[in-house]
Every structure is written in C-alpha cells, then in structure tokens.
Amino acid sequence: MPLSRFGRRSQTPMQSGNGSCRTTFLPIVGHRFQFRTKPAPGFDGIVQCEVREVSPPERLVYTWTGGGVDTRLIWTLKRVPEGTHLTLDHTGFKGLRGMLVGGILGKGWRSKILAVHLPALLDRWSGSGAVLIVPEAECDSSRSEG
Predict the structure, then answer these.
(1) Per-residue pLDDT tens for 16-42?
(2) Residue 103 main-chain phi, psi, to 5 deg
(3) Around Cβ 11, how many Cβ atoms within 10 Å?
(4) Positive or negative torsion for Cα 105, 110, 111, 117
(5) N or C: which end of the chain has fewer CB within 10 A?
(6) Tell me, what's the pLDDT at 70?
(7) Which residue has the higher pLDDT, 45 or 65?
(8) How far is the C-alpha of 28 from the C-alpha of 32, rounded, in Å?
(9) How far apart are CA 106 and CA 13, in angstroms?
(10) Does the N-terminal peptide bond of residue 57 adopt cis geometry, omega within 30 degrees of 0?
(11) DSSP secondary-structure letter at 22?
C-alpha cells in the first residue's frame, strides 16, 4: 500500500459502518479519546488515550491508560520499495502487572489487530474520509460512546 494513501488526515471520528461501536479518536495533539472493549478481571474495558504527536503520514503517538497500566503507542510508517512498512511500538510496561498486561496486549496486537483487523480495515477504507472500524473487531456496542 502506498504511503501517500495514509497522508490524507481525517478530522472525523472513527466509527463502524453500522454505528455500533465508536471511538472519538481525532489526529489532533492533545485530543483525548477512549477505546472500549469487553471488561475482564482488573480491567473495566475502557482505555483512556491522549494524542501526543501527529506527523502525517509517518507517525502517530498516543498514551494508553487502562487496566492498571500507563503506556504509549507509537505507530510509524516508512516508505519501502514494496509499499509501506508499519512499525508499532507499545512501550512503558512497568512492574509485574505491566509485564503481564504487555504480554496479553502484545499477543492481541500480533494475532488480531495487525494480522487480521488492520488489513481488513485497509481493504475497506478509501484513503480519505471517516476511517471505518472493522465490524469483526469485537467492540462492545452496549458500552459505545456518543
């Protein structure tokens, strides 16, 4: 996928095509938003986030606080001869709880988000306008915002 496709910055919240799951993410430094998912022991299902850096189309940084961890996600895109290389760094896991949560999240990033949901989203997204959340991404619609 060409890096230029990511250069078109949407100013509209991400939402699913059927409106069942929403996040109020906007690529604006200082903007606060949430991800909501199924609660689990020690986790209410809500991740509080704040955008810290936006350098379209190459870099997006935001905080990720929930389930007893306060971390940072860094998404980086780099042009390569084959198209675009995506790097995701989820950092800041501290202590035993951080190590456990980091292992759980790392598994989810690798097996679901990066391997399944992100490719499906990119297949459906035109490259401009609202970014659709993949319906299969297990959002908890009973807890959605907005």
Answers:
(1) 333 334 567 888 999 998 888 888 888
(2) -65, -45
(3) 9
(4) positive
(5) C
(6) 95
(7) 65
(8) 9
(9) 25
(10) yes
(11) B
The answer to whether 132 touches 125, Cβ cutoff 8 Å, is yes
* Beta strands 59-66 and 69-80, pairing class: antiparallel
- What's this model's pTM, rounded to 2 decimal places? 0.74
Token pair belonging to 100? 């456990």
φ, ψ at 95 (rounded to 5°):
70, -175
Identify the residue whose tokens are 């991400």.
14
**Contact predicate 58/75, CB 8 Å:** no
Q: Please tell us whether the domain made up of 3-143 is placed in CATH 3.90.930.
A: no
User: What's the full length of the chain, in residues?
Assistant: 146
Q: For residues 104 and 50, give the distance between their C-alpha atoms in angstroms, rounded to a whole number.
A: 22
Q: What is the pLDDT of residues 102-127, one digit of tens each?
A: 888 888 888 877 788 777 777 776 66
